[in-house]
Design goal:
Helices cover 75% and strands 0% of the residues. With 127 residues, the protein is mainly alpha-helical. The chain has two domains: 64 residues, Orthogonal Bundle (434 Repressor (Amino-terminal Domain)); 63 residues. Helix 2 packs across helix 3 and helix 6 runs antiparallel to helix 7. The protein is globular. It starts with a helix and ends with a helix.
Length: 127
C-alpha cells in the first residue's frame, strides 16, 4: 500500500471529506486527488501537514495497515464478552468482508469524482 492509499484510508477512517482535507492543505481538489492516487510525491513537510489535519503522528499514517486495523477490531469484538452484544467469529468475517467491499465502493466513488472533475475542467476550457 503506497502513501497516497494510506492517506485515503486514514481520511476515510476518520470520516473526512476530500474537499475538506484539500482546503486545509491549501490545494485544489484535483491536486489532492493526485496525492491520494499516488501521482504527486509527498515530502516530510506535507506529511506533517497531514499529521496535523488527521491529528495523528506521521509514523502512524506512514505505517497504517488496514488488515491490522480489521484484526484489532475483530479481536476487540471477540473480547467483548461482558457486553450484551457479542460478534461471533462468523459475524466478524462478514463484518470484515463488508468493510473491504465498502472500501472498494469508496475507491470507485473517488475515481468517479476524479473523472467528473476532469470533464468539468475540459468543458470549462472548451466553453
Amino acid at each position: 500500500m503506497l502513501i497516497g492509499d494510506k492517506i485515503r484510508y486514514v481520511r476515510r477512517l476518520i470520516n473526512m471529506e476530500r474537499k475538506d482535507v484539500a482546503e486545509r492543505l491549501g490545494v485544489s481538489l484535483s491536486q489532492y486527488s493526485n496525492i491520494e492516487n499516488n501521482v504527486s510525491h509527498i515530502d516530510e513537510e506535507r506529511l506533517l501537514k497531514f499529521s496535523a489535519i488527521f491529528q495523528m503522528p506521521p509514523d502512524i499514517i506512514k505505517n497504517i495497515d488496514p488488515t491490522k486495523v480489521y484484526a484489532q477490531v475483530n479481536k476487540a469484538n471477540e473480547q467483548n464478552t461482558n457486553k450484551d452484544v457479542h460478534i461471533g467469529a462468523q459475524d466478524n468475517e462478514i463484518s470484515q468482508r463488508l468493510l473491504i467491499e465498502n472500501q472498494k465502493l469508496l475507491d470507485i466513488q473517488d475515481r468517479n469524482m476524479d473523472i467528473i472533475e476532469e470533464l468539468v475542467k475540459k468543458l470549462k476550457n472548451h466553453g
